[in-house]
Design a protein that fits this description.
The complex is a heterodimer of chains A (288) and B (307).
Chain A (H helix, E strand, L loop, with lengths): L2 H4 L12 E7 L3 H10 L3 E6 L4 E6 L2 E6 L12 E8 L3 H10 L18 E3 L5 E5 L8 H4 E3 L14 E8 L5 H12 L2 E2 L13 E4 L6 E5 L13 E9 L2 H10 L16 E3 L9 E5 L6
Parallel strand pairs in A: 1-4, 5-7, 9-12, 13-15
Antiparallel strand pairs in A: 1-5, 2-3, 2-8, 3-4, 6-7, 9-13, 10-11, 11-12, 14-15
Chain B lengths: L5 E4 L7 H10 L4 E5 H5 L5 H11 L2 E8 L7 H20 L4 E5 L10 H15 L5 E5 L10 H11 L4 E6 H6 L15 E6 L9 H11 L10 H13 L6 E3 L11 H27 L5 E2 L4 E2 L9
Parallel strand pairs in B: 1-2, 1-8, 2-3, 3-4, 4-5, 5-6, 6-7, 7-8
Antiparallel strand pairs in B: 9-10
Classes of the chains: A alpha+beta (288), B alpha/beta (307).
C-alpha cells in the first residue's frame, strides 16, 4: 500500500495555498497608503483604469481600492476582500456556489481579468486566484511604477497571518459551518491560540498557512454596535518585539495599557483613520 | 399566562398589513409570522411594509413560505435557487430569524435522499451569512416527504447548525401520524412549532388535505383534535422545546371577521395551549426547581422519558 492510498479523503478540496492578496476599501487612499508605508509596505503598481493601488512587502499584496463605487458613507478603511490562492479558481467558484455560497456579480470590465469570488461576511468577498506561480494577475490590470522595486522585501519577516472576524452572539458554530464546509477550515484544538487579544475561535486554513479568528461580542456588550465583519488583518512576525521596535521607529503607535500591551506574543496598533488597526502575532509560519 | 412565546400569523387575518399588525399587538401578542405576499403586496411597496413591521414593535417569528425547493435539477433547480435567494433577502430585510421551507409537492422533484439533503445543506449555507435559520416542514401532501419523522431524518442527516425542522400540528393530524417519534427529535433542532386544528376527524386524500389546510383550519382548542394537540404540545415541552409557537390558521371565515375578533380567538387559544401544558405537567414540575417565565411554571432541562 502506498502512502497515498492510506490518506483520508482530501481535507483541502479547493487546493487552498495561502493568501494572494487582501483588499481594503477606502475613500482616503493617500492617508491609508501612508499608514501602509509606515507598516513597511511599498506602493508598487496602479490599476490601469480605476483608482486602485497595489502595495507590497515580502510575500504580501495589499490592494487599496478607492473606486468610488465601492465605498458608501465616509468610514474607516474596511477589509473587504481576501483572495485565496487555489488550485483551480473556476472549480473553486463552482464548487462553493454549489454548496450554497452567494456568487459575486462579475465585475471585470473590458480587457480586465475576471476574478471569481463569493460573498463572505457582511459586504466582504472571498476571491479565488489560481494564477500565482508563473503568471501574475497584477500584470493584466496593473501598471507597475517605473523605477519601483516590484518585490520590496518584508520588514522583520512580516507575513500574512490571518483575519479577525466579528460575529454575532452565539454564531460561532454557524461560521464554523461556513468556513468548514465551503473552504475546508478546521477549528484549532481548544487552548491553542495566538496573539494577545480575546481568544474567540481560531480556524486553520486547510493549507495551514493562515488563520481566521471568530469573535463573539464580549459579555455585557449588548449596547455596543457589533456588526458581523472582518475586523482587522493579522500579520505574523518571527520576533514580535524586534518587529515592533522597527515599526515604532517608523512611527507606528501600539496600544499599550495594562490589559493590553506589546509582548513577545503579539501587539496591536492604535486605530488609524478612525478605525483601522493591525495586529501582530508571534508566528511559526515560514515567510514565503 | 404569558403570551411571549405565542405568535399570530398574518395569513389568518384579512386586510392591510398595518391593520393586521395593530390587531395582533392590541390582542397582547409580541410576535408575528410574516407571509411574503403581505409585504410584497403592500400598496406602498416592500420597503414601506418593512418599515411598518419594524414600527409595530412586534418581533418577527419568521418568514414564509418557500415551496417546492428541494429535489430538482438543471434549470428548474437554478430557478428555485434564485427564488429562495429573493426570499432570504426579504427575510433579512424585515428582520426574520427564520425562513420556512415546505417539503416539495412537485411531480418533477426527486425523492432521492442524498439530493434532498444536499439541497437543504446548500440552502442553509445561503442563509448563514444572513443570520437566518432554515426550518424544514413536512407538508402532509408533500410528494416524497410528508411525515414529520422524515423531515427530522433529513435535517439530522444534513447536519447544519442553522437548519432544523418545523413541526406543524395540522399536517401531523391530517396524516394521522403517531406522536411517538416526537421524542426522537433533538429539541434544539426544532426551529418553530405551528399550531392549528380542523373540524372533522378524518381527511381523505391529498386534495382534501390541501383544501382543509388552506381554508378551514381553526385555532387549537376550537377543533376536534384537542386531545392530540394537547399531547403534542406536552411532548414538545417534555423533550425540552422552549421556542416559539405560531398559530398558522388559514380559514376563510376568519378572513370575514373583524381583525379584533380573530385576534381574540388567537389569544384564547394561546391560553388554552398554555393550560394544557401546565395542567398535565404539574406532577413533573414539582421535581424541577427553576421557574419558566414562558409557561408560568417550573422547567429548564427536560429529559425525554422523565414523565
Amino acid at each position: 500500500m502506498s502512502i497515498n492510498e492510506s490518506l483520508p479523503e482530501p481535507l483541502n478540496p479547493l487546493g487552498i495555498d495561502g493568501i494572494e492578496f487582501v483588499e481594503y476599501a477606502t475613500r482616503e487612499p493617500l492617508r491609508f497608503g501612508a499608514v501602509l508605508e509606515m507598516l513597511g509596505f511599498a506602493l508598487v503598481a496602479r490599476h490601469r483604469s480605476r483608482e486602485v493601488l497595489l502595495y507590497r512587502q515580502g510575500g504580501m499584496n495589499v490592494i487599496v481600492n478607492a473606486d468610488a463605487a465601492v465605498t458608501g458613507e465616509p468610514a474607516p478603511p474596511a477589509l473587504m476582500a481576501l483572495a485565496l490562492r487555489v488550485r483551480d479558481a473556476s472549480y473553486a467558484y463552482r464548487h462553493t456556489v454549489d454548496l450554497g455560497a452567494w456568487p459575486i456579480p462579475t465585475r471585470a470590465g473590458a480587457m480586465e481579468l475576471n476574478i471569481p469570488g463569493i460573498h463572505a461576511v457582511g459586504e466582504s468577498i472571498i476571491y479565488f486566484v489560481d494564477r500565482y506561480q508563473d503568471f501574475s494577475i497584477y500584470d493584466v490590470d496593473f501598471k507597475f511604477l517605473p523605477g519601483a522595486d516590484h518585490h520590496p522585501p518584508a520588514l522583520a519577516g512580516l507575513h500574512f497571518f490571518g483575519v479577525v472576524q466579528a460575529i454575532g452572539a452565539g454564531r460561532t458554530d454557524e461560521w464554523l459551518d461556513f468556513y468548514g464546509h465551503l473552504l475546508g477550515f478546521r477549528p484549532l484544538p481548544e487552548g491553542q491560540y495566538f496573539g494577545i487579544l480575546p481568544k474567540g475561535m481560531l480556524l486553520e486554513s486547510p493549507c495551514k498557512k493562515f488563520y481566521l479568528q471568530l469573535i463573539e461580542p464580549p459579555p455585557g456588550s449588548e449596547d455596543i454596535v457589533w456588526d458581523e465583519e472582518w475586523l482587522r488583518l493579522g500579520l505574523g512576525a518571527p520576533d514580535v518585539l524586534a518587529a515592533t521596535r522597527l515599526l515604532r521607529e517608523r512611527g507606528v503607535v501600539f496600544v499599550d495599557r495594562e490589559s493590553l500591551h506589546t509582548s513577545e506574543k503579539g501587539a496591536l496598533t492604535q486605530f488609524y483613520l478612525d478605525g483601522v488597526a493591525f495586529e501582530f502575532v508571534h508566528s511559526h509560519l515560514v515567510q514565503p | 399566562m404569558n403570551l411571549d412565546h405565542f405568535g399570530m400569523d398574518t395569513i389568518t387575518l384579512a386586510g392591510p398589513l398595518e391593520a393586521k399588525l395593530r390587531a395582533v399587538r392590541a390582542a397582547g401578542f409580541t410576535q408575528i409570522m410574516l407571509m411574503a405576499r403581505d409585504l410584497v403586496g403592500h400598496p406602498d411597496g416592500f420597503d414601506a411594509a418593512v418599515r411598518a413591521v419594524k414600527a409595530s414593535g412586534l418581533r418577527v417569528t419568521g418568514f414564509q413560505v418557500m415551496r417546492d425547493y428541494e429535489g430538482l435539477t438543471g434549470t428548474l433547480h437554478n430557478y428555485k435557487v434564485d427564488v429562495v435567494k429573493s426570499m432570504l433577502k426579504m427575510a433579512q430585510a424585515v428582520g426574520a430569524p427564520m425562513l420556512l421551507v415546505c417539503s416539495s409537492s412537485m411531480p418533477h422533484a426527486t425523492g432521492e435522499r442524498e439530493r434532498i439533503v444536499k439541497d437543504l445543506q446548500a440552502l442553509a449555507m445561503l442563509a448563514l451569512p444572513l443570520n437566518i435559520r432554515i426550518g424544514y416542514e413536512a407538508l402532509s401532501w408533500g410528494r416524497h416527504v410528508n411525515l414529520y419523522p422524515q423531515s427530522w431524518e433529513i435535517v439530522a442527516q444534513a447536519d447544519r447548525v442553522n437548519l432544523g425542522v418545523v413541526i406543524d400540528s395540522f399536517h401531523i393530524l391530517a396524516n394521522r401520524s403517531t406522536l411517538d417519534e416526537i421524542d426522537e427529535i433533538d429539541a434544539r433542532k426544532i426551529i418553530l412549532v405551528q399550531l392549528s386544528d380542523f373540524m372533522w376527524e378524518r381527511i381523505e386524500g391529498p386534495e382534501q388535505r390541501i383544501e382543509t389546510a388552506r381554508h378551514l383550519r381553526v385555532f387549537p382548542g376550537e377543533g376536534v383534535h384537542s386531545a392530540e394537540l394537547a399531547d403534542l404540545v406536552r411532548r414538545l415541552d417534555r423533550i425540552g422545546y422552549r421556542g416559539d409557537y405560531s398559530f398558522e390558521v388559514m380559514n376563510d371565515d376568519y378572513q370575514n371577521m373583524p381583525l379584533e375578533t380573530a385576534a381574540a380567538r388567537a389569544r384564547a387559544s394561546a391560553k388554552w395551549v398554555t393550560d394544557q401544558v401546565l395542567r398535565r405537567s404539574l406532577p413533573v414540575r414539582e421535581q424541577r426547581p427553576a421557574f419558566d417565565h414562558r409557561t408560568g411554571g417550573a422547567s429548564t432541562i427536560a429529559r425525554p422519558g422523565l414523565s
